[in-house]
Amino acid sequence: MAAGDNLILGIGVGGGRMNRITLVSLLIISVILVSIIAGQNNIITKSTSNDRRTVYMIVKSSDPNNEFWQIVRMGAETAAKEFNGDLVFTGPQSETNIQGQIDILADAIQKKPAAIVLAAADYKAVTPMAEKAVKEKIPLITIDSEIDSKAAKSFIATDNITAAEAIGEKLAQLINRKGKVAIVSHIQGTTTAMEREKGFMNTVSKYKDIEIIGKFYSKSSPEEAYRITKQILREIPDIAGIFGSNQQSAEGVARAVNDSGMGRKIKIVAFDSSEEQIQYIEKGIIQAVAVQKPFNMGYLGVKTALMAARGEKVEKNIDTGFEIITKENMYSPENQKLLFPFVER
Amino acid sequence: MFKQNNKKKQSRSIQARILIYFSILIIATVSAMGAIFYYKSSRTIEKNADEYAYQIVDQVGRNVEYYIGYMEDVSSILYYNPIINSYLMTKPENLWNKEAEEQKIVALLDSIMKMRSDIVSIYIFGRDGQVITNERNYKLKEYVDIRELSWYTEAIKKQGLPVVSSSHVQNFIKDRHNWVVSLSRQINAFQTQEHLGVLLIDLNYKAITDICSKINLGQKGYVFILDEVGNIVYHPQQQLIYTRLKSENIERILNTTQRSFIDAEGKEKKLVTIKTLPKVGWKIVGVSYLDDLSLSKDDIRNSYIMITLVCLLIATLISAKIASNISRPIKKLEALMRRVEDGDFDVDIDIRSNDEIEHLGTSFKVMLQRIKELMKQTKEDQAAIRRSELKALQAQINPHFLYNALDAIVWMAESKKHDKVVLMTSALAKYFRISLSKGKEVIQVKDEIEHIKNYLVIQKIRYDKKLEYTIDVDQDILKYDILKLVLQPLVENSIYHGIKNLPGGGTVEIVGKQVDDKILLQVKDNGVGIPEERLENILQSESEDKVRTGGVGLKNVHERIQLYYGEAYGLSIESKVNVGTTVNVWLPVII
Predict the structure, then answer these.
(1) Cβ neighbours of residue A237 under 8 Å, at least 6 residues apart?
(2) Pairwise CB contact (< 8 Å): A78 & B240
(3) Which region, left, alpha or beta, applies to residue A333 given φ > 0 means left and ψ of -120 to 50 means alpha?
(4) C-beta pairs of B128-137 under 8 Å, 24+ apart in sequence
(5) Does B144 lie at the interface with A, CB-CB under 8 angstroms?
(6) With an 8 Å Cβ cutoff, is A234 touching chain B?
(7) In A, which residues are within 8 Å of B168 by CB distance?
């Protein structure tokens, strides 16, 4: 009886011991394996982060004389260096060459880059090709101008409405919240024009003593803006303020006001900051401009594209911000860098 | 129960324990070593990185200083130029050869400009509104008052010492917005030290950006320049800083006295190396990303991890091997012991490991040998006991005795001694009943005495006047257990060898009492006695006098008692020839 007991017990204990040894060795082996895998994982992630990824940035104009896009390029190059990417900066020579941009986009899709950053030359025309890129599993980031699709992972641009609201507020203060104002916008129906008009109206219409006498379209021509402004000055001599919605409109407005010698009486606010506009700011003809941040647009475009390429989550909408520039603050270190981004000239 | 507890205690096998302890030891040692080596080598890398970054920053600093020094030299040439001095001294309306003087000065400026392409422009502004410059094609902005510009006011403040501005856009020239670093200096009259005007030399900012932008500190690292108060002179990502997409720890850079520090505020650790230019107070700052710079540091860490793992693997295998080496003989011994436990005493214990386990095995082997011997001994003893018992029994049912007793009964019946027949028969019956005692080996003293009484009754009838007997036993010992049939052979011996041959017969005396912790039973006779030389041999003698003792002798009784109770007990005999014999039976007190 006792012997039998012992026998059973012996087997039981023996089995347990075997299991325990196996368990311990399994544990050790698994720990080692896990560490190795973790280590290699580390190496893998390391190597992928070292893997340089190519990002195509396709803008509206690759013309080296087009300041705006060249600044975008500077930002893009900075981001590419910082986040280990290879940047291909391209685009048609002229902003109006929409088909040219579509062809370049098609070409880029064939090269299968890690991501594409697109500043669409046209809201609708570029959309099908942009959607094709997404179908090919290439992450698409849009900057500056949107496309007629939700295909883009992120849209990075100046919030035109907010900027126009701010510049509208600036004008309202300049004319002591009363008087007649005119809007010299650029191209009727374009997104930027509509947004800027809307933002401007949002604030100005809050003041009951301010009367908006009309919206005029310069068709992005300084001469047309000049002509319109002259007419306004003639017909409405007590005009208090004018809003020029882009560079060309602003230049024409400022020229006309300057020529008419009514500079001290009429306040001008505008978008953008060309050399001519800057001179008018210095002269006190233009009181304030809202300036976009193309450098940020390029930088954030490439940064976001590389994040998307790595499978990281990116924000759907990124506002690159704007700055209100006046004569007083234009040579502050921050703003002179914004207004005069190029060192080379 | 006890055994089970034991099993639970050793439930972790030695092998497993050795393995665990070894593993812990190895992991601790190897990881500690790895950590130390990793720490040491990463320190070295950091130190190298620090040194490298400092050299770079130092080099950049030298180059920048060279440019500024050069501008100062140029400023000195103009500052100490007598033509310029006298030109500015005289009011323009009083200067009869104004054009010619200006030409001379412009020619000087031109020659300087030709020497250096990195100077953008040189302007001399007189206190009376004179402007002399090499820039013939450009006009000043009429709406800008140069006396309000910071390079002008700073120069006035310093009263003749050169002032170097931060990088900025030069904004007083029409249609031109050059990025420059300006050196301005108030020009004083040689004799009177009175203020004559301000000299402005604009160095192309590109000269400085070119020095810095080409510098690579690792893949992502860069160099930037701060002026005395912390304004950015140059930064590759200036725009990002102004829009707060990026930030530099400028406060710490301005306040630190160390040449480098680790900035761990952002996502990535940065090594910030600072070189202050004594002349202008600018700080050249190198930023190296630690993970970038010491990419090799990661490699080192990875290889340390790999080495550690390989060591660990090998060490684990070795320790497993050692553990099994140590535990194998133990396990073998354990298995053998278990077989012994299960009753197999014939196992061959052959453990060769040249250590304590082997000694243990050998000891166990010796022990097993002893156990086997003891078991054999016990078996033999048991057999002897049975044999002696058998002999004792044989003595009880000695046919001679029975025959004689029956013969006596017959004889008494014939002589019509009925009461004696009854007495004899009843004694004989009792005698045999106790002899058999239902096969029990041990009976109470009371029964043993009763038995010997019956025997003596029978013998008394046989020997009549020749045999007398007395029984004197303490009442106290009657209840004790003793080996049965101890006394009968002794009494028989006394009768046959002591009394029978005495002409006048004799007396047998039975005495029983307790002496200390022993029972002493005595059988005394006053017979012929035993000669001394025989007395010695009676209990030892091998050759038993079977004929004389009727088969069961004193020796058998002695042996029986000793086998049963041990060496401390048994018989002792005292005898004197012609006086008598006393046989002492020593027995243990057992209830």
Answers:
(1) none
(2) yes
(3) alpha
(4) B128/B91, B128/B92, B129/B92, B130/B87, B130/B88, B130/B92, B130/B197, B132/B84, B132/B87, B132/B102, B132/B105, B132/B106, B133/B106, B133/B109, B134/B106, B134/B109, B134/B110, B135/B173, B136/B106
(5) yes
(6) no
(7) 331, 333, 336
Q: Which of B174, B169, B199 is nearest to B74 (CA)?
A: B199
Scanning every residue of chain A, which has its alpha carbon at the shortest distance from the alpha carbon of B213? Answer: A78
Asked if the Cβ–Cβ distance from B245 to A300 is below 8 Å, we say: yes
B79 touching A, CB under 8 A? no
Q: How far is it, in rounded angstroms, from Cα B461 to Cα B468?
A: 10
Q: Quick check: A198 contacting B, CB < 8 Å?
A: no
> Quick one: pLDDT band at residue B284, thresholds 50, 70, 90?
very high
Distances (CA, A) of A317 to A147, A152, A154, A320: 13, 10, 6, 10
Model confidence at B177: pLDDT above 90: no
Question: In angstroms, rounded to a whole number, what is the distance separating the alpha carbons of residues B401 and B420?
Answer: 18
Q: Which residue of B has its CA nearest to A1?
A: B342
For residue range B316-351, what is the model confidence (pLDDT) as tens digits?
A: 777 777 777 777 788 888 888 888 888 887 877 777
Measure CB to CB from residue B20 to each of A9, A24, A78 and give the nearest one.
A24
Q: What does the pLDDT look like over B96-109, one tens digit per residue?
A: 788 888 888 999 99
Q: Is B339 on the interface with A (CB under 8 A)?
A: no
**Is the Cβ pair A82, B220 closer than 8 Å?**
yes
Cβ of A42 under 8 Å from any chain B Cβ?
Answer: yes
Write the CA distances from B427 to A344, B409, B432, B471, B574, integer angstroms.
150, 11, 9, 16, 30
Find, in chain A, the residue whose alpha carbon is nearest to that of B5. A9
Question: Residue range A315-320: average pLDDT?
Answer: 93
Give A10-64 pLDDT, tens digit per residue: 333 333 444 455 556 656 665 665 565 555 544 444 444 445 789 999 998 888 8
Which chain B residues contact residue A339 at CB under 8 A? Answer: 169, 177
Distance CA B90, CA A220 (A): 53
Q: A343 and B205: CB-CB below 8 Å?
A: yes
Complex-level ipTM beyond the 0.90 threshold: no
- pTM (two decimals): 0.62
Closest partner residue to B177 (CB to CB) among A10, A338, A340 is: A340
